[in-house]
Specification:
This protein has 351 residues and is α/β, with parallel strands linked by helices. Helix content is 42%, strand content 16%. The protein is built from eleven helices and eleven strands. Strands 2-1-3-4-7 form a five-stranded parallel sheet, with helices on both faces.
């Protein structure tokens, strides 16, 4: 049973990016809500959209962008998509799925960082009108950075966030506005430098923490399903390139749970890099690149050096994984190998 159409929109077009399904579920919840108001909803996973020829939205459509937060920003794949989005004058709703946790019955909110503000700036310059900025604290899937959530927590977060999404969707669909994200504007501004650091170096560092253990049977699922085609086969083993967005799809969908995070490797490399490589760099190239009080310049140089040697070290480690003793060290210095830490996450299937 539908209600009278009191929406100013004839159509809703949703563009989402997802690794483990959170943004996809939010898109479904919005579509269910729009149906009550006789508004047609079209949902597009940007992984399968030709980003070089994006169709402009019809003038009577509300356009919604939904993506997870990576390093307190939209991931580059979504930023690039929005940057290439054609000019228009439609109303826009920006949403994100950020790292939700649970303490008792209280959902601890994640932080959006600069995601909404950067996207708003780009879209405003293209002629669009921002009608809402709505964060959704869905279950966090970054088990490379924190322990995985249990099933009870995941189910609770889905139920509560579905209620929140429907409430916000009804407000926007009926012509209202929803800028609930402004509640956290101060901490979002404070962490802006971290978002910049993640974009410049952090995302590349994380991409070199994934590897396949001996449990890998070369089924190819991770390579085939990677939304940004960041995984390739090297030496008969999956190999993560710098294109990786750390969306966690590969780790969460591996049928053998063979994909781990190389915590021990990255910690060891970081120690060697700061204690030896950086010091040698300034010792032998200090006259060419003096270590003066240009903090930002030094940071860029050291970051570039870090990534170069990380790429080399990761390639060497990847080769050494063929030796069982080395592979076992990698596995047992990975926190994702621990049962209580490494719970793989996929959003609840609501088909």
């Amino acid at each position: 049973m539908t209600t009278m159409n009191i929406s100013p929109y004839k159509k809703i077009i949703i563009y989402y990016f997802t690794g483990t399904g959170n943004s996809k579920n939010v898109s479904r919840w919005i579509a269910e809500t729009a149906e009550k108001y006789d508004v047609l909803t079209l949902i597009h996973n940007i992984t399968y959209v030709d980003r070089l020829s994006i169709s402009p939205p019809p003038s009577d459509a509300l356009v919604i962008f939904i993506s997870p937060i990576h390093g307190f920003n939209y991931p580059p794949v979504m930023i690039n998509f929005i940057s290439r989005f054609p000019k228009g004058n439609n109303d826009i709703l920006l949403m994100n799925t950020r790292a939700g946790m649970l303490i008792g019955k209280y959902i601890t909110p994640g932080l959006t960082g600069i995601a909404f503000y950067l996207a708003s700036l780009i879209l405003r310059l293209k002629g669009y009108s921002i009608k809402g900025m709505v964060p959704v604290d869905m279950p966090s899937n970054w088990i490379s950075l924190h322990p995985g959530l249990n099933d009870k927590t995941i189910k609770y977060l889905h139920v509560k966030n579905r209620e929140r999404v429907i409430k916000s969707a009804e407000k926007i669909i009926t012509g209202g506005r929803d800028f609930i994200s402004l509640i956290t504007i101060l901490p979002d501004i404070v962490i802006a430098p971290i978002a910049l650091g993640y974009y410049i170096i952090g995302r590349f560092m994380l991409s070199k923490t994934y590897y396949a253990s001996q449990d890998c049977n070369n089924c190819g699922i991770c390579i085939k399903n990677c939304p940004v085609k960041a995984i390739k086969l090297v030496d008969t083993r999956p190999y993560w390139t710098f294109r990786c967005e750390s969306c966690m799809r590969c780790m969460s969908n591996c049928p053998k749970k063979a994909i781990e995070t190389a915590h021990g490797f990255i910690i060891g490399f970081s120690i060697v890099n700061s204690a030896i490589i950086i010091k040698l760099f300034y010792k032998y190239f200090g006259s060419v690149f003096p270590k003066i009080d240009i903090v930002l310049l030094n940071w860029f140089a050291e970051s570039a050096l870090y990534l170069i040697f990380l790429a080399i070290s990761y390639r060497i480690a990847h080769y050494c994984l063929r030796f069982k003793s080395f592979e076992r060290v990698m596995v047992y210095t990975s926190l994702t190998k621990l049962k209580w830490w490494g719970r793989r996450y996929k959003a609840l299937d609501e088909d």
